[in-house]
Amino acid sequence: MILRGLLSAALITMSISSFAAIEVSDGYFRATPPGAPNSAAFLNLKNTSDQTISLLSASSPIAKTTELHTMTMDGDVMQMRKLESIDVSAQSTVQLKPGGLHVMFFGLESPLVEGESQKLQLEFSDGSFQMLELPVQKVKMMH
């Protein structure tokens, strides 16, 4: 009887996560040279719901600290700024990409080697979480 209850709970959990309002695609961690203390992750967030949903936080075992960031240019000076959240409007897609919004990792535990993969957990304002396994790649510059 207990096993049947656990099985039912597991199936409910699986079905909730499989109907997440945010679809994540094209995600990857930026590969780093040995000794680099920081890195970033980039991905697309597509909101399939009729309400704005915010990415509230990200976490990964690869680093001591993980933050949501934006990067802007002020003349010739690059400025990175920590964000409390990243909003994804209803029925829209937000790109986290080099030169813009991204997930930043400080205090890497070890280098991020191209061809490997690492875990990333995302928390959203609708109460959902997504655990992802993303590849480590060289940065793809987007225009």
Can you tell me about this structure?
The protein has 143 residues and is mainly β. Helices cover 12% and strands 53% of the residues. The chain has one helix and ten strands, in the order H-E-E-E-E-E-E-E-E-E-E. Strands 1, 2, 3, 4, 5, 6, 7, 8, 9 and 10 form a ten-stranded mixed β-sheet that branches.
Short key terms for the protein model shown above:
143 residues, 10-stranded mixed beta sheet, 10 strands, disordered N terminus, mainly beta
Brief account:
The protein is mainly beta. Helix content is 12%, strand content 53%.
How does the overall form come out from the CA principal axes?
Answer: globular
Task: Give the low-confidence spans.
Answer: 2-18
CA radius of gyration: 17 Å
Record field, number of beta strands:
10
Query: What is the share of helical residues?
Result: 10-25%
What's the N-to-C terminus distance? 57 Å
Our estimate of the beta-strand percent is over 45%
Average pLDDT works out at 87
Number of helices: 1
Described by strand count, sense and barrel closure, the largest sheet is: 10 strands, mixed
Question: How does the SSE layout of this entry go?
Answer:
Blueprint: H1 2-18, E1 22-30, E2 38-47, E3 53-59, E4 63-74, E5 77-83, E6 86-88, E7 93-96, E8 102-108, E9 117-124, E10 129-137
Parallel strand pairs: 1-10
Antiparallel strand pairs: 1-2, 2-7, 2-8, 3-6, 3-9, 4-5, 4-8, 9-10
